[in-house]
Amino acid sequence: MHVESVGHGPDCVLIHGWAMHAGIFAPLTRLLATRLRVHLVDLPGHGLSTDEATCDARDCAERLAAQLPRALWIGWSLGGVVALQAALAHATRVRGLVEIAASPRFTVAVDWPHAVEASVFAEFGAGLYNEYRRTIERFLALEALGSSHAQAELRELRAHVFERGEPTLGALQDGLRVLDRTDLRAALARLAVPSLWLAGRRDRLVPAAAMRWAAEHAPGGAYREFPSGHAPFIAHADAVAAAIFEFEASLPQ
After folding, report:
1. Fewest Cβ atoms nearer than 10 Å: which of 66, 137, 183, 194?
2. Which residues of the chain have pLDDT under 50?
């Protein structure tokens, strides 16, 4: 996996969401790099890691934990699944965990209303074969939907999505399977590192209620909410960075 490191200070790992790459974090990266050493990951099949064949969350967590220094791990959406897997399996390598618009379960269940229907990811998966770019555009629109700055967020997402080339079809399919099948709710009870859950109040993909629940069920969990959709680090980069700095300062060395 391609990893770019910028800034100076305590280490942190920043992991993007489905169909994106590390460049989407540009507004947040500039802020974090003033105090932290930020390791920006392109997941397999995304960005500058397009020579990678598959994108399995658990495998990515294993490889990154072995490759990178002990750090604060920050994951957005699909990247949050990778970060949570690392924190659960490699607590000695993870100082703390920040989940941005990421949930322990992304699809609804009888006992889990805080999610989207599984058909949402199935429709995106089917669309990849026939209308590749339009399908990704639809997903970007869903990410921005509900935000008080929806048009600005959508413009930012569109501006970055293909700037490092197109993600591979296989990696996109893998990512949708991860989002559809992952259920780490029960595993939260054994999370051994402090965690901060940053939610978008109007998020249509990961309801804020899902992240509030996760923060309440993770030992040492904390919760913050922003008036945004699925990408709070775009319209509210300053506030998101401030929350991360405050959380990082509270972590044991």
Report:
1. 66
2. none
**Is 49 among the residues known to form the active site?**
no
Domain 2-250, what architecture? 3-Layer(aba) Sandwich (3.40)
Is there a catalytic annotation at residue 203?
yes
d(CA 12, CA 33): 10
Confidence at residue 68, expressed as pLDDT on a 0 to 100 scale: 97
Q: Is 253 helix (H, G, I), strand (E, B) or coil?
A: coil
* pLDDT for the residue numbered 136: 77
Query: Catalytic one among 39, 203, 228, 236?
Result: 203
Four-point Cα dihedral 77, 78, 80, 84, nearest 10? 150
Is 77 a residue of the active site?
yes
Q: Do β-strands 195-200 and 94-100 pair in parallel, antiparallel, or remain unpaired?
A: parallel
Token code pair at residue 246: 């405050």
> Model-level pTM?
0.93
CA distances from 150 to 18, 155, 229 (A): 19, 9, 7
Q: Which among 2, 149, 230, 236 is annotated as catalytic? A: 230
DSSP one-letter code for 47: T
Provide the token pair at 168: 């591979």
SS3 state at 32? helix
Cα 114 from chain centroid? Answer: 17
> Would you list the DSSP string of 174-197?
HHHHHHHH-B-TGGGGG--S-EEE
Catalytic residue (one of 2, 42, 56, 77): 77
pLDDT score at 146? 66
Strands 37-42 and 2-6: antiparallel
